[in-house]
Amino acid sequence: xxxxxxxxxxxxxxxxxxxxxxxxxxxxxxxxxxxxxxxxxxxxxxxxxxxxxxxxxxxxxxxxxxxxxxxxxxxxxxxxxxxxxxxxxxxxxxxxxxxxxxxxxxxxxxxxxxxxxxxxxxxxxxxxxxxxxxxxxxxxxxxxxxxxxxxxxxxxxxxxxxxxxxxxxxxxxxxxxxxxxxxxxxxxxxxxxxxxxxxxxxxxxxxxxxxxxxxxxxxxxxxxxxxxxxxxxxxxxxxxxxxxxxxxxxxxxxxxxxxxxxxxxxxxxxxxxxxxxxxxxxxxxxxxxxxxxxxxxxxxxxxxxxxxxxxxxxxxxxxxxxxxxxxxxxxxxxxxxxxxxxxxxxxxxxxxxxxxxxxxxxxxxxxxxxxxxxxxxxxxxxxxxxxxxxxxxxxxxxxxxxxxxxxxxxxxxxxxxxxxxxxxxxxxxxxxxxxxxxxxxxxxxxxxxxxxxxxxxxxxxxxxxxxxxxxxxxxxxxxxxxxxxxxxxxxxxxxxxxxxxxxxxxxxxxxxxxxxxxxxxxxxxxx
Length: 527
Prior knowledge:
With 527 residues, the protein is mostly beta strands. Helix content is 12%, strand content 35%. It contains 7 helices and 33 strands. The termini are far apart.
């Protein structure tokens, strides 16, 4: 079924390598054997709003017939107004035989621990990583995602525009491409169940284990950012190895228990404050299970039906729906105007730019007669969001707003808007990030709290990527505990955590050594 994959590797070691490794992060759309006769149209403003394109998608076609290429470009145009990236998104699209019943299959290249990553030790789809970094992390010659479409299917419908539905007995090719690009942009996880296939061992240990993660070049196992939002029916994270060891039968059971959910703050705002169902049938289906929305919860015709694992004949979908747009925001995607519209916040544009040590936020809202104010929230690296100010909305119709946050300390800031309507209800708006660069070789905080009884921490940023070692010593100079020994990327934040619970009362010293600096901090432990 699959024609090769991209082996992930950490960006600082080798941006992308090729090779046949894992099928767990390749996902397929399968044919359903009935006619649905449903249409989910494109956003009403699609193609009518000036400057709506916020991403550029470049496609390299292999063996594609001309009609398929034209239909493919329609899906490309849709995604170019739903996500926002300063870096071109590069797709390699191949037209070749796939297994019967498979309409398309996709896998992204991956990056972890790149400069500006929101989460350490986490795989991101390459296109998303580029958007977050604001730069091409690999070679422009390398695709960000690889897509394959079934050349042996005789019932394709190749459309010329986004008008109308799909004839009975036909599978809409543009819909399939729209679905597959979403996987390549990051709607993908790494969870698998070992089915005993002798040609491929999905998980370590006995047949029947469930597992997650893709290994780095040096053998460390990282989850996908999508995986970090997966929960069971009791809202226990599937990455919680106290409950679900990796690998384990317990993981296999929950993945095949019809009760796996995606739980993100943005998703909750559009789903009635509940997690959304992922596809988790009682028999794990490679390429379909986990990395799709549940088919029964979102059947044909539902506004959120794009990312279910099956597509029926005469089923047409030209909108990702509010849940997929919110899910994209949860995993980190800056959203384009059409996804912003799906979130129902009244916002159609939001940007954040750095000017020296300031961050300048600009946004455009429609229907402002229904909005009383916008709450501006700020997050420093991976800390929680906190409100920093409120901007009043006045007048009616469309309004443009500008807000400046001055003299920010070095580091990565993510800003979020919360529209508050005149009736007091709130919706979760978009997010944008800026990085205030260091004007010195390093920034090291004081230990806090200090004195400490149990837990304390300090943070470090460096202006150039380098090895950082940190340890705790007592006043006699004896090493008490190691705190870190790792490569710290420029523009990242290292949180050094100090467990004081087992320590005796007294004075201790944290020593930190980089390639071009050495520094100490004193901490007092009290019992």
